[in-house]
Amino acid sequence: MQTSELTNKMLAYQHIIDFNTDQAVDWAVEMLLLGYETPSLLILAGISKPTNFFESEKILLASFNELGIVLPEKLDAIAGYCRTFIEKIAISINIKGNLNDLYSAGLTFDYEELIFDFYLFYWAWGDLDYGETYQDYVPEATKDNIEELVSKKAIDWLKNN
């Protein structure tokens, strides 16, 4: 099965504090476009937004069941969702934007330890953007090398997780 940012988010939805089931509708449409078709996916894709959480969640879970998807344990779900952003950072795709998205995702997981080093880079980059020449979060980071350091951290994270 092909995975995407939305698929990884759906697999982690139970652990995302501010999860919006409107995105489940978007995911269902994406899955249909990828060639997956089940009765529940068709129903979910047809729900009008804004969605009712409980109605949409019930159909989302039925879609998982029909597709043979087993929801991962919390840590695996969080790692899978965060991996989406970290993979992009590792290959230097919009490093700062993906770091911001990773930081936001991490906030919904209540500062998950698994990605804490990336929080430090986020805060360091913020200080450097603010004009500070030195910051305490990642002492070796400067305006000139922070992208490279974040990318290296992402590559290391992917090797170890």
What would you say this structure looks like, in words?
- The chain is built from 8 helices and no strands.
- It has helices at residues 5-11, 22-33, 39-45, 53-67, 74-90, 95-108, 116-129, 146-160.
- By secondary structure, it is mainly α.
- The mean pLDDT is 92.
- It is elongated, with a radius of gyration of 18 Å.
- Helices cover 63% and strands 0% of the residues.
Keyword list:
161 residues, 8 helices, mainly alpha, 0% strand, 63% helix
Give the topology, please.
Elements: H1 5-11, H2 22-33, H3 39-45, H4 53-67, H5 74-90, H6 95-108, H7 116-129, H8 146-160
Can you summarize this structure?
The chain is mainly α. It has 8 helices and no strands.
| Major β-sheet annotation | none
Distance between the termini: 21 Å
Shape: elongated
The proportion of residues forming helix, as a percent range, comes to 55-70%
Q: What is the CA-based Rg, rounded?
A: 18 Å
Percent of sequence in beta strands:
under 5%
One letter per element, helices H and strands E, the order comes to: HHHHHHHH
Q: How many strands?
A: 0
Count of runs of 4 or more consecutive helical residues: 8
Mean pLDDT over the full residue set: 92
Please mark out the parts with pLDDT under 50 across 5 or more consecutive residues, or reply none.
none
Please state the structural category. mainly alpha
Multimerization status? single chain
